[in-house]
Amino acid sequence: MNLHEYQGKEILNSFGVRIQRGIVATTADEAVAAAKKLTEETGTGWHVIKAQVHAGGRGKGGGVKLAKNLDEVKEIAGQIIGMDLVTPQTSAEGKRVHQVLVAEDVYYPGESETSEFYVSVLLNRATGRNMIMYSTEGGMDIETVAEETPHLIFTEEIDPATGLLPFQARKIAFNLGLSGKAFKEMTKFIAALYTAYVQSDSSLFEINPVLKTSDDLIMAVDAKVTIDDNALYRRKQYAEMRDLREENAIEVEANALGLNYVDLDGNVGCMVNGAGLAMATMDLIKMSGGEPANFLDVGGTADAKRVEEAFRIILKDPNVKAILINIFGGIVRCDRVAQGVVDAYKNMGDAINVPIIVRLQGTNADIAKKLIDNSGLDVQSAVAFKEAADKVKAVLS
């Protein structure tokens, strides 16, 4: 589950990570009130107005701007709220901005220069250990840094038996070229950041940039936080932070129905039971010359009601030109699935306007094939994987 910047900062702050303070606003007038409050609390005269959407590169799309007075706060907030923000991480249509974060200006003058760093905490799946990735090139796209100057990216793996050790935090601060007060502040920052990552059951913390202020404080100026969905049952305070407006509407509806659905860009809808079989089915579609339009695992229950719900979800995608149902009858009998397909098809009537190929293998597969073939509906049955692939190819050509 992705969070907005301001929500990620709330989590960081709760674990003692110093953050750039800010207040969320949904209107231009609220933004002005937030700016006034920040001025009273922090003394800041300038404010940064940041669009709150689940996408990176907001500054490149005009979603992050500096306001030097209250009039500019109102004008900029009014421009950003309601806009369709297009960034390198959004579609061409962009994402609608519903709220902004009015943040304090932390690039204030002082005795020394400011510096920006990149720090993230994530799981290294190759080793099964958490990893801190960091770089002196903060404020830049980490992908660009990795491509052009890979020697400027450092990693530190954490042994799960010991957690982050003090020498590792010091090593990170040293590799970032810090000394004195800034060195000590960075070690504390890294320790608090890692604790926040573990204790919040997150799968990603990305802070870009981490700022060394002119008076040698270390703080998170941005925060990209992703919480592990599987842990939300024990992190209910974070589950309440979910912003469904930022998520794919079809995926949200499917989730409410108990369907495991991921929207893709292809032209062949998939209805499968089991994640492994679903992945194999998507490969099958690719081999037949099509592109999978979705990942859809209906699970062990595939009665008429569930099949009909799955049909309706798949057909919400206007790019779907065919549907491939690939079910292995282990827990659920194939004849029950076949009857579910037939009943759902009859219930939906003209709503189904694309060819359907059904491959059922396992318990009572022979009975299931007869049910499909004798239904009188425009549904094609298949037995072998290759036969299903050939039929998908035929209906697409």
From TrEMBL:
Pathway participation: Carbohydrate metabolism; tricarboxylic acid cycle; succinate from succinyl-CoA (ligase route): step 1/1
Catalytic activity: succinate + ATP + CoA = succinyl-CoA + ADP + phosphate; GTP + succinate + CoA = succinyl-CoA + GDP + phosphate
Domain ATP-grasp fold succinyl-CoA synthetase-type: 2-210
HAMAP family per UniProt: Succ_CoA_beta
Positions that bind Mg(2+): N208, D222
Protein name: Succinate--CoA ligase [ADP-forming] subunit beta
Pfam families (UniProt xref): ATP-grasp_2 (PF08442), Ligase_CoA (PF00549)
Domain called ATP-citrate synthase/succinyl-CoA ligase C-terminal: residue spans: 271-391
Binding-site residues for ATP, renumbered to this chain: K50, G57, R58, G59, V106, E116
Residues the record lists as binding substrate: N273, G330, I331, V332
Record note on quaternary structure: Heterotetramer of two alpha and two beta subunits.
Co-factor binding details: Binds 1 Mg(2+) ion per subunit.
Sorted UniProt keywords: ATP-binding, Ligase, Magnesium, Metal-binding, Nucleotide-binding, Tricarboxylic acid cycle
Organism superkingdom: Bacteria
E.C. designation(s): 6.2.1.5
Biological function: Succinyl-CoA synthetase functions in the citric acid cycle (TCA), coupling the hydrolysis of succinyl-CoA to the synthesis of either ATP or GTP and thus represents the only step of substrate-level phosphorylation in the TCA. The beta subunit provides nucleotide specificity of the enzyme and binds the substrate succinate, while the binding sites for coenzyme A and phosphate are found in the alpha subunit.
Molecular function (Gene Ontology), one example: succinate-CoA ligase (ADP-forming) activity
InterPro entries on file: ATP-grasp_succ-CoA_synth-type, ATP_grasp_subdomain_1, Succ-CoA_synthase_bsu_CS, SUCC_ACL_C, Succ_CoA_ligase-like_bsu, Succinyl-CoA_synth-like
Family: Belongs to the succinate/malate CoA ligase beta subunit family.
Matches recorded under Gene3D superfamilies: ATP-grasp fold, A domain, ATP-grasp fold, B domain, Succinyl-CoA synthetase domains
Cofactor: Mg(2+)
